[in-house]
Amino acid sequence: MKNRLAILVTLFGVCIAASFAQAQALSTDIAFVTALSGDVRFQAKDEAAKPAQAYMRIRHGDTLRLASGASVRLSYTTVPRQETWTGPATFVVTLAGGEKLTGVAPVIAQLPTSVPQKLAKVAELMKTSHMGGLVVRSIKPTAPANLENVAAAMSVYETMRASTTATDVTPELFLYAVFLEYQMLDDLKIVAKEMRARQPDNAEIRLLTDAAMTDR
């Protein structure tokens, strides 16, 4: 009887932990709008629809509506996936990707498996930058043991850059997260400038790169 009770208590604890983890995942950013043209409307749960913006962050359950001729591209932080939707269409964003409500299915591109984790870090950095809390101070050099990881990340970046448009800074966002992780601050400044050159009028990108480009 005691063993059965212990098992039930353990299972209950696992269920509670799983439910908490799922609720936490649903309340976090899971995708970026990495390209946008035409009339695209974004609607979060229980909120009025508003125009979508490039590099805005999207959560699970958000809905996007595209007018005829409009297009939007999402890069996910939960799966190695990039979707390009063309209007007229309506879809809801989920942890596993967009679910079509109306219109045609998206064009899907598979990203390298290391990309979603890095983009998730960028999403958190963007939140911090909005609160004025993102400051880059460390000058710790990259350890030799990490050079192989950085070289692999550069290879991923080159592959992404070769297969995307000039104004899409998803590859640079990936590289930004890598350089910040390994405290490669000189390189971080270079990629920050590159992002600004590709998206000069984007407020989200400017906020993210301010800390990297400011000498401390």
Give an account of the 3D structure.
- The chain is α+β, with helices and mostly antiparallel strands.
- It has 2 domains: 28-110, no CATH class; 115-213, no CATH class.
- It has 6 helices and 10 strands.
- It has helices at 2-26, 115-130, 147-162, 170-181, 185-198, 203-213, and strands spanning 29-37, 40-43, 50-51, 57-59, 63-66, 71-76, 81-86, 89-94, 97-102, 107-110.
- The strands form 2 sheets. Strands 4-1-6-7-10 form a 5-stranded antiparallel beta sheet, covered by helices on one side.
- Helix 2 packs across helix 4 (170-181) and helix 3 packs antiparallel against helix 4.
- The longest helix has 25 residues, at 2-26.
- The termini are far apart.
- The model is unreliable at 5-26 and 129-139 (pLDDT under 50).
Helix content bin: 40-55%
The major beta sheet can be summarized as: 5 strands, antiparallel
Strand content: 15-25%
Low-confidence stretches: 5-26, 129-139
Query: What average pLDDT do the residues reach?
Result: 80
The computed structural class is alpha+beta
Number of helices: 6
Order of helices and strands: HEEEEEEEEEEHHHHH
For the biggest β-sheet, the strand order reads 4-1-6-7-10
Number of domain units = 2
Alpha carbon gap, first and last residue: 63 Å
Gross morphology is globular
Number of strands: 10
Roughly how many Å is the radius of gyration? Answer: 20 Å
